[in-house]
Amino acid sequence: MKKISLSLVLSLISFLGVFAQSDTVTTVMTQAYQVEMATGLRSSGKIWVVVSVLLTLVIGIYIFLFIIDKKVKNLENK
Amino acid sequence: MRKNWWKILAAVFVSASVIGGFMGPVPVLPILNETIRNVYFHVPMWFTMITLYLISVIYSIKYLSSGKPEHDLIAVESVNTGIIFCFLGLLTGMQWANITWGAPWPNDPKLNGSAIATLMYLAYLVLRNALDEEQKRARISAVYNIFAFPILVVLIYILPKMTDSLHPGSGGNSNFSEIDMDNYMRPVFYTAVVGWILTGVWISTLRYRIRLLENKANKID
């Protein structure tokens, strides 16, 4: 279980890394909008990095929760 | 493992909502700008809180009819977990309000209502600690809980809708479905809500199971 989840996290991160590097579209797109949004930034502004960081945090917390769950279960079976 | 499928679902849904919440399209609106994405993260905290409080009330009613101490334990631990999500909701809401409404705590009926509701549930926990006798504590706090929940619903959902509130769907404000005309925010939002609710329930079951173990250990001594 632990190994599967760890490899899942790592593969996700590497997958996201590819996305963060590949796109170099300029921020010209943002000027087209009156209301400033991160449309252009999303591809070139490395928002993928933030998403991958958050994803790592979330998955890390869930792995932690699973470990606690397992510990409680072990105590219950004692 | 077969019983744990919903825990995996919780993790997957919350992760999916992080990806969808950041990368998905959102309506282009002034003042809100990109902060509209907070809908995916701030609002589920409140949905989780109310679900946990609802579970608590159900088990309080069950306790009153069955008298099983386990039901009382579920009721307490649901509130304990619910309060954490309540504070997370308050904090994230204050951060968001500070930027979009100009102050962390504008005089908004929904904010004040949720503050009173929070105090009400803190009072529930204080009440529990004030009573020593186990059965009495369980019974009185169950009755209190049954009264507190409808008041919470009125304070958070009904009263703000009747008056002018800064929150969407209140007074003359447009609600979620009007802002998001293409409904592309909905799938991400509901994924986030389900994911966080499952997470909240999971944490409260963990707390409940630990409490059971503690009780068992105390009885042996």
General description of the model:
The complex is a heterodimer of chains A (78) and B (221). Chain A has one domain (2-77). Chain A is 79% helix and 0% strand. Chain A is elongated. Chain A is an all-alpha fold and 78 residues long. Mean pLDDT of chain A is 69; it is low at 17-33. In chain B, 76% of the residues lie in helices and 0% in strands. With 221 residues, chain B is an all-alpha fold. The model of chain B has no long low-confidence stretch (mean pLDDT 89). Chain B contains seven helices and no strands. The radius of gyration of chain B is 19 Å and the shape is globular. The chains are: A mainly alpha (78), B mainly alpha (221). Chain A binds chain B through residues 1, 33, 35-38, 42, 47, 50-51, 54-55, 58-59, 62, 65-66, 68-69, 72, 75-76, and chain B through 1, 4, 7, 10-11, 14-15, 18-19, 22-23, 26, 28-30, 33-34, 199, 202-203, 206, 209-210, 212-213.
Summary of the model, kept short:
The complex is a heterodimer of chains A (78) and B (221). By secondary structure, chain A is mainly alpha-helical.
Quick tags:
heterodimer, A: mainly alpha, B: about 220 residues, mainly alpha, about 75% helix, globular
The whole-angstrom Rg of chain A is: 19 Å
Give the terminus-to-terminus CA distance of chain B: 33 Å
Number-wise, the strands of chain B total 0
> H/E series of chain A, N to C?
HHHH
Query: What is the H/E order of chain B?
Result: HHHHHHH
Note the overall shape of chain B: globular
Through-space gap between termini of chain A: 22 Å
What structural category characterises the helix and strand content of chain B?
Answer: mainly alpha
Oligomer: heterodimer
Assign a percent range to the helix content of chain A: over 70%
List the helices and strands and how they pair.
The complex is a heterodimer of chains A (78) and B (221).
Chain A lengths: L1 H21 L5 H4 L7 H6 L2 H31 L1
Helix pairs in contact in A: 1-4
Chain B lengths: L4 H19 L15 H28 L2 H32 L8 H22 L3 H29 L13 H4 L6 H35 L1
